[in-house]
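As promised in the previous annual report, we have extended the structural survey to additional targets. Below is the entry for NADH pyrophosphatase.
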Amino acid sequence: MSESVIDAFRYCPRCGTPVENPGTVPLVCKNCGFQHFFNPIVAVGGIVTDPEDRVLLVIRARDPGKGKFGVPGGFVDRGETLEEALIREVVEETSLKAIETSYLCSFPNDYTFKGITAPVTDAFFRVEVESFEPLKAEESEISSFHLCVPGENELSNMAFESNRRALETFLK
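The corresponding structure token record, generated without further manual editing, is:
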């Protein structure tokens, strides 16, 4: 069972006063005036292709979406640009060095972690890598890879709807 991050705030994070109307946006503390708008978290995803135009999909090693397909990517850290986060995530998850990135599209997503669901905006990029050697999975996040021209099997088994929509955009 998961609950929205919006509903999880039952006390003001500044002064600890109970929230009068949990689940409202913005959250407004009647005691100290603190406001929070629950804006989405930002994440990136890379559509990496090989010289034969096959897409590199990852198979997730953990939830959410354990055992399902995804694209290399992850959350943008404080102080990072989208491109910096993308390059870092591609290296962390695949050991591949990105040499060129170009923006493709973005889609909303929901990410559930430890029972709390937060809104996310996923920004997707085309990624050119220096080489596919060495392709090595970050075992705590990725169980294996799948190189393919994504078809119905892959698209219907994506860990995140936003990843599916980005691949469909890419394939057009």
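The chain has a mean pLDDT of 95. The first helix runs from residue 5 to 8. These points will be discussed at the next consortium meeting with the crystallography subgroup.
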